[in-house]
Amino acid sequence: xxxxxxxxxxxxxxxxxxxxxxxxxxxxxxxxxxxxxxxxxxxxxxxxxxxxxxxxxxxxxxxxxxxxxxxxxxxxxxxxxxxxxxxxxxxxxxxxxxxxxxxxxxxxxxxxxxxxxxxxxxxxxxxxxxxxxxxxxxxxxxxxxxxxxxxxxxxxxxxxxxxxxxxxxxxxxxxxxxxxxxxxxxxxxxxxxxxxxxxxxxxxxxxxxxxxxxxxxxxxxxxxxxxxxxxxxxxxxxxxxxxxxxx
Length: 247
Known about the structure:
four-stranded antiparallel β-sheet; mainly beta; single chain; four-stranded mixed β-sheet
């Protein structure tokens, strides 16, 4: 069943070797992919169809990201990919988009449109709408190995606007779980582009900088990639994106 919880007021800004370099689609922000974020949980029986739809939406023009929330964990199954930071991000979206409650599965397209994550028609409509708009800003990002357990991001954002933030993430391309308890007991669940680490950088103090994110344990770096995307903290609208492999 769909799970919802009450919203707490917050803002996005409150969440705070060989290098690989990339730009926002080779420096052309007009060709940045649309970012689709799915808030999901392995403890939610309504979520597997949304996970499948997310995979189907992934293409060169659409960057899909799966955020696993933690508020299902006390109901029989602890989602191994869940983190409280992702629940907080979902609550912040609810505040920005004027949603009374957060729930799973929830899909958000371009930071502007939200709907039940398994709704194919709503997803198609939202993608069509966002693709008609040129993303704001530009982004260049270089990723290097900080040490054996972390990577370093060096970034430069251009054409930024007041209130803009930079979201940085380490993403696992594909993963799966054999669920033994909760609403999805005995199910084998598969996921794409699961966010394993996430950080928000306010850009008021400058448009260039560095940040470090921890690598997930026991995951081959060849199964990971790094992504960055600009976002308006007040409206949620997502701008230019950049993607990089991890050395």
